[in-house]
Amino acid sequence: MFLVWGDNTLARRLASELIDTYGVPVTVIVRDADADHAPDSGAPDRRPVVVVAARLTPDVLTRAGASHRRPHGPHRPDTVDNS
Hints:
By secondary structure, this protein is of the alpha/beta class. It contains 2 helices and 3 strands. The chain has helices at residues 9-20, 58-63, and strands spanning 2-5, 26-30, 49-52. The longest helix is centred in the N-terminal third of the chain and has 12 residues, at 9-20.
């Protein structure tokens, strides 16, 4: 499972690429449920899971299914603890 946080063009393109090209499950965390955030891959079973949250917190990550996953990528001190 891949987790994408954001509702901008880059986040939508990344989610679409992961779903359409690689066929992997994707969860997208967005700030607004009404935003145009979910890529439309056509098939309902290939759409991302969407979690709505105003801020990225440990609880939001748990709801998104990331609580038991190891982080990939850099860890910066100004981000949520990803240890």
